Amino acid sequence: MFSYFVYGFIWFMSLLPLQVLYVFSDIIYYVLYYVVGYRRKVVRTNLVNSFPDKDAAWIRSVEKKFYRHLSDMFVELYKTWHISSAEIKRRFVFKNPEVFENYFKEGRSVIGVLGHYANWEWMTSFPLWTDTDFDLLALYKPLHDDVMNSMVKKIRSRYGALPVPKNDVLREIVEHRKNNRLFIAAFIGDQTPNRSQLHYWMKFLNQDTPVLIGTEKVARKYNLPVVSLMVRQLKRGYYEVEFIEICSHPAELPVGELTEMHSRLLESEIRERPELWLWSHRRWKHKRYVADI
């Protein structure tokens, strides 16, 4: 019953203009940061370890900006339920959609890789920017609550994206290739691997970091071009995306190089505007043992 209440509440709130929702975001920020202290220790530790040359004042400043942005992300995600196509195109601009369109003209599907940076949820609006018939496979981790899972799927499919459970992505890719159906498979490149997947490590934000290589494995297996989706926040509620081609023929690259390339691009984004990354994520909960080095 509680899930249905939350579903209805979010549905109603998403009808409000973003300007009004940002007032609620300011309240959420205050509660998260000052009252609840949501993962403040995790955020502080991640920032200190990632920027050891910065003083305490700088760390606190970025920390507060991060919580403000996290609160904005919350309302922007759920506003997607009712925001018009015209408004989201005005607020979330794709600078060079021709990067994907050129591959589509060659009959090639593509992997898009991004991180938990700026606003990754509004990436699902890309189908509004092209007339090409294709599927945007938006990978996600299913929620345990069926009601809330259904809500998130509705929101993410609002503009034609196809939400795909992350464990089903290979099946979807095989099915699309079998049916000669063009697709963009959108992978999040900064997820923390499970203990059983600690196979590849690299220096990332000044720390020894385990990196998932699933994106690379899929790209190499099917020789799918890989494009980085670089998001920049222009001002509150306004973003632009630049597509950067990483590799057209990943099967030709040595193992690990593709993973390093897209991770370095994400790292450069984070260093430019650190408050826009998801610092509450326990990105470095795994440590590499000497035997692994």
Question: How would you describe this protein?
Answer:
The structure is a single chain. This protein is α/β, with parallel strands linked by helices and 293 residues long. It has one domain (2-292). The protein is 43% helix and 18% strand. The chain contains 10 helices and 9 strands. The chain has helices spanning 2-13, 18-36, 40-50, 56-79, 85-91, 98-105, 146-156, 169-178, 214-222, 257-272, and strands at residues 92-94, 110-114, 135-140, 162-165, 183-188, 201-204, 207-210, 226-235, 238-247. The strands form 2 sheets. The chain has a 7-stranded mixed β-sheet with strand order 1-9-8-2-5-3-4. Strands 6-7 form a two-stranded antiparallel sheet. The chain is globular, with a radius of gyration of 19 Å.
Summarize, please.
The protein has 293 residues and is of the alpha/beta class. The chain contains 10 helices and 9 strands.
Task: Give the topology, please.
Elements: H1 2-13, H2 18-36, H3 40-50, H4 56-79, H5 85-91, E1 92-94, H6 98-105, E2 110-114, E3 135-140, H7 146-156, E4 162-165, H8 169-178, E5 183-188, E6 201-204, E7 207-210, H9 214-222, E8 226-235, E9 238-247, H10 257-272
Parallel strand pairs: 1-9, 2-5, 2-8, 3-4, 3-5
Antiparallel strand pairs: 6-7, 8-9
For the structure shown, list the relevant keywords:
10 helices; two-stranded antiparallel sheet; 7-stranded mixed beta sheet; 293 residues; alpha/beta
Q: Which structural class is indicated by helix and strand composition? A: alpha/beta
Into which percentage range does the β-strand content fall? 15-25%
Unreliable spans: none
Shape: globular
Biggest β-sheet: strands ordered side by side in the sheet = 1-9-8-2-5-3-4
